[in-house]
Amino acid sequence: MSVVPLxxxxxxxxxVDGGGTKTACCLARVLADGQWQILxxxxxxxxxxxxxxxxxxxxxxxxxxxTALSAANCQASDCRxxxxxxxxxxxxxxxxxxxxxxxxxxxxxQLAVVPDLYPLLDNATAKASxxxxxxxxxxxxxxxxxxxxxxxxxxxxxxxxxxxxxxIGREAxxxxxxxxxxxxxxxxxxxxxxxxxxxxxAYQLKxxxxxxxxxxxxxxxxxxxxxxxxxxxxxxxxGILLKAADDLTSLVQQLRIRLEVxxxxxxxxxxxxxxxxxxxxxxxxxQSLTTSxxxxxxxxxxxxxxxxxxxxxxxxQPEQYELLP
Length: 325
What we know:
By secondary structure, the protein is of the alpha/beta class. The chain folds into 2 domains: 12-116 and 304-323, ATPase, nucleotide binding domain (Nucleotidyltransferase, domain 5); 124-294, ATPase, nucleotide binding domain (Nucleotidyltransferase, domain 5, 2-Layer Sandwich). Helix content is 42%, strand content 21%. It is built from 10 helices and 11 strands. The chain has helices spanning 49-52, 54-71, 92-104, 165-182, 189-196, 202-211, 215-231, 235-259, 280-291, 304-314, and strands at 12-18, 23-30, 36-44, 79-86, 110-115, 129-134, 138-143, 148-153, 266-271, 296-300, 322-323. A hairpin with a 4-residue loop joins strand 1 and strand 2 (23-30). It is globular. The two termini are 17 Å apart. InterPro entries: ATPase_BadF, ATPase_NBD, Euk-type_GlcNAc_Kinase. It comes from Bremerella cremea. This is ATPase BadF/BadG/BcrA/BcrD type domain-containing protein. Pfam families: BcrAD_BadFG.
């Protein structure tokens, strides 16, 4: 199990959040009051080792780190400690292998790798805490007052990822293809997608899909189109978003039941592309959670690297949690 190093004031630290679409790095100086000063940021491609492999994941992380270091005119040797919150590292074997890769690249004197879900938990409270990621994929995490953890979802786009950007985009494409094949005349949401991809027939749309190098990312990007159409009261788009919100609500309810948390003690941090716009989908999710009987408090983690920094300076240790099977 990775051990998160203890942070001392005035140290330079690296906080990295890596997923299936991008990797973000934050270089910061730790202040005496437990806060931090952001010095620079860096970004690179995907670093989920299950999706892109260990070598490419490490390369993406190094690229994001190097960009941040260069912007601040710093060297890796200046950074005493680093915490890497990376998707696809729940498995201890994968996590250990990635940790070894990052040590070999000498990105910091001390470093640790933790699953990307952990920064979603509010470690400042002893009460229950929940987290939801809804970006390209979807997954939920929960912790109760006994420090027991449960994780639900994260099955990948073939088996699951219900409520994710990919799931929303896939439903929009299914609707568009069905409309084109049954009527030949797109309307509403289907018209917008056809115009976006410059197609007019189902054959052209399927040909377009076959040409994408990263089909999953392209499909997930369509979730933005669905949100915008839902705001214009396109009822097909509204229905797709309501289904996605209900799927995410199911994740929360499953976690709550497994962890034996009362309905009125649901505090949720959310992250991912679906929550990074104007709050429209957040309101849809809140309505779904409330309708299911919960009394939720929702907080958007707008910058995941700040959640990683919070973990780093708090002295968090993965061993303090018991992960339920």
